[in-house]
Amino acid sequence: MEKPTKIKKDEAFQFIRRDFLKLLSFAGLSTLLPGRASAKDDWRNDKNIPKQYIQNRDLPDFHIRSANPFMGVDMGAWGLAIGGMVKNPVGLSYEDLFGLKMFSQVSRLKCVECWSAKAEWQGFQFSELVEMVQPDPAAKFVYIQSADSYYESFAIEELLRPRVLFVLRMNGKSLSKDHGYPLRLIAPYKYGYKNIKYITSIKFMDTRKRNYWANSGPYSVDGTIQPGIDHPLDYNKKPLPINGGEVFHFFDR
Amino acid sequence: MGPDRALPGENKSKPIKLTDIVKPFTLILLSCFLFSCDSHEVRQIAVDVPAGVQVPEEMVYIPAGEFIMGHKEEPRTRLGETVSSDAYLIDRYEVSREQYKKFQPQHTFSPKSALHPVTHISYSESLDYCKAYGKRLPTEIEWEKAARGTDGRKWPWRVFSDHPNNGFSGFTSEPVDKRKEWISPYGVYGMGHNVWEWIGEGYTYLGQPESERDQFKVIRGGLLQTHITIKFSPTYFRNWMAPESKLNFIGFRCAKDVV
Q1: CA gap B93, B105 in Å, rounded
Q2: Domain total in chain B
Q3: Nearest Cα to B149, choosing from B33, B55, B37, B66?
Q4: Contact residues on chain B for A245, CB-CB shorter than 8 A
Q5: Closest CB to A222 among B222, B239, B248
Q6: A243·B239 Cβ contact <8 A
Q7: Nearest CA to CA, how far is B97 from chain A (Å)?
Q8: What percent of chain B has a predicted confidence (pLDDT) above 70?
Q9: Share of chain A above pLDDT 70, in %
Q10: What is the ipTM metric for this complex?
Q11: What percent of chain B has pLDDT over 90?
């Protein structure tokens, strides 16, 4: 790696930090994940989850789901590593993400468990990351890992669709621990399980990896919402037909 | 029992032959075959194509005439009214990936899925394809008539059958010509299963609020899912979708006027 020669004083800190994170992403995306240390306990088959852990909770407005309960991300160690088949692998800090162009949208998260809940989400588009890292043309897929050992995979074009956001804020506030602080994905036309929380790394690949729920349950890697019935939490769980793809109801407006 | 009833003891002198048992059994089997009670054969409507009408190999001729449209318990349909159509031609199969590639060379797919219906196609892209071959998208009347024939049936193949579930959220398409046992009474494939199909009409219904108008196109005839089941969609079921949507469960087929 090239060493910077002349650095203006006020740029020095930022540059060095970025360099450090870049080094981190080179060193190995999956092994050196910051924040992973806090997920070393595996509570997947345990019923005695400590109360302070993020875990499944049926809250009236928006249920919480957690594949592997954990304490949440340690922000002292967190960074977003983007690499794989790219020209410029990068490591980004939480602050760096706020430098990206923000978009806001109201969309529903639709769970395979037959409920949906809406929120206002704020975040950046995947296209900005793509521009930054410049993937190899042979890279067609991304593999995303999260701090609780969850993982997801997408075709790159699926993440470039309109209304797909990498989200930092929900309903006007920073994401809560329960909803994926510091960074989560919102892809409204995919079932909730595709909307990965506590993201730590994004890896560009030429082959498609599987995802957590395709490996652990009867759910597809694709996870596009199919036509059927929705039971929106904010509509007294009244069954309503959905046409497939992004779920919205006219009373959402 | 009527007067033909045999008197008790009458057959004492007649030993039962094997053929007496086998004959009626064969008859039952034969009638099952003819009337499709085993659901492997859908009885077809006999259609006379008028002289001078050219029916392309990949299309089906649907004659002019009345049919039952919608269902009385489905308020956003035509409620089971009798509706009539002119004669028209409709594609026998959903447009396959292989066919679409001839029109759009950039289209890629794995060789294994060449005969699967093309998906991730927007409304306008499907329209462009049809126009390129001198066709258009079917109207709702045309699609529904081709799917259910004239007897008002719920399923193209008439008799209810359960869909072999392939797992929740795991939509998998099939080759467009795979299911002969699920063809319509006019011999059209894929009208109650496989992908949903773009229809060349906007989604409207009686009493539709202003805010919903002119936003969606109708899609017809794919699979419906709930949490852990997959069901066929009834022939009168109307689904709707934003025209720019490109999804893994939406494809199309084309239609054409008879000239």
Answers
A1: 21
A2: 1
A3: B66
A4: 241-242, 245, 247
A5: B248
A6: yes
A7: 19
A8: 82
A9: 84
A10: 0.76
A11: 73
